[in-house]
Every structure is written in structure tokens, then in C-alpha cells.
From TrEMBL:
<dbReference type="Pfam" id="PF03807">
    <property type="entry name" value="F420_oxidored"/>
</dbReference>
<dbReference type="InterPro" id="IPR036291">
    <property type="entry name" value="NAD(P)-bd_dom_sf"/>
</dbReference>
<dbReference type="InterPro" id="IPR051267">
    <property type="entry name" value="STEAP_metalloreductase"/>
</dbReference>
<dbReference type="InterPro" id="IPR010185">
    <property type="entry name" value="NpdG"/>
</dbReference>
<protein>
    <submittedName>
        <fullName>NADPH-dependent F420 reductase</fullName>
    </submittedName>
</protein>
<feature type="domain" description="Pyrroline-5-carboxylate reductase catalytic N-terminal">
    <location>
        <begin position="10"/>
        <end position="104"/>
    </location>
</feature>
<dbReference type="InterPro" id="IPR028939">
    <property type="entry name" value="P5C_Rdtase_cat_N"/>
</dbReference>
<keyword id="KW-0560">Oxidoreductase</keyword>
Amino acid sequence: MSDPELTSLTIAVLGGTGPQGRGLARRFAAAGLDVVLGSRSAERAAEAAAALASAGRVRGTSNAEAAAAGDIVLVVVPWDGHAGLLASLTEELAGKIVVDCVNPLGFDKQGAFALPVPEGSATQQAAAILTGSRVVGAFHNVSAVLLEDPDVERVETDVLVLGDDREATDLVQSLADVVPGMRGLYGGRLRNAHQVEAFTANLISVNRRYKAHAGMRVTDV
């Protein structure tokens, strides 16, 4: 059951044609929310949205138009395009809740590892660029494979939500809660985003060793 406040809002997913973006869009649409997929190619976004039509209300367009249409805007783009995309959308994203889901990771023969970010984290970089937006970090550690699989009814994981704006983090926690099995938990201020983003490298290592799609659960909460 969706939060009544969320049902009146549009959820935009920038980078919505990638696995993580498509998966989150699928889950939010299935929960009854209005979803807009954004992409560098509006045509690709429209094709991805059409493939998700059975899940619920999903439409596709350019990243700029999706950013303008969304009330809550998720950023799910590759790290190397993160800063450039956000810098190009400061006007469209002004005054909105922007949820940064990006993990700055590198890969070599030993596996995944966290990359250094001058601002401290991708979420803090977003906040530095989008000074007129309400930036929150969330959905960093959720398996795209599970999100995209229509046969997986429940995504059993906790989502740490980070930010300095209590109203915004509360709303993003509620957004996580609409997905069956998923729970949104406050994880600290923006300055604590680095270790949450970096933890994805550990989960990738777990998944490779155990051939799994591991998530995270916080106990005693």
C-alpha cells in the first residue's frame, strides 16, 4: 500500500534505461506510483517504458524532461556521467527532492573497489552541484537483478537513506517502503554517504563468492 502523500507525486528516474533504473521503476510502478523514465535518448526511454507497461504507469522521455516532470527525482546514471548530467539540470531540479543512487566504483582483476570522490561521495557531489535542490542518498545497495525479475515478489533488503533534510529523508524512506520486502531506514547525514556507497563493493564481492544477490538488513530496529 503506497503512502497517500506519494500517490500524488511523480517519480522520475534519470538513467532509467539501465538495469538499476528499470528495476526501481518497475517496483514503484507496481506499487501504484506514477513513474517517468529519463534517458539521453528519449526514444530508448520510451522503449524501456513500453516494456514495463504491464507493471503500472510508466512513460519515457529525455533526462531533462523527466527531471522537469518529477516531484521526486532519482539519479541512477553511471558515475562517469554523474557530475555533467546534474550540472546540466540544475534548473529542472531546483526545489525538488533528488535521490542520488550512484556508487563511484572501479573494477580490476581483484574485483570492485570504491573510488575517491573530491566532495566525499556521489551524494555530496550532487548536493554541491544542486544547491537549490533537496538532495538525499538512497537505494545504493539494492540488487538490480532482483529488482528487474518479475518472478521475485519481495525484495528483502533494507535501504539506508541519508540526508540533512528530515522531511525529505522521511519521504524517501516511505518510497522505499512501497516495495514489498524493502524497508527504508535513516542512515545518517549526507557526510555519511561515502561508506554506504562504498559498501556496494563489498556486496559485489559477496555475490561473486556465493553466487547470490545479497542485500543488507539492519537488526534490532
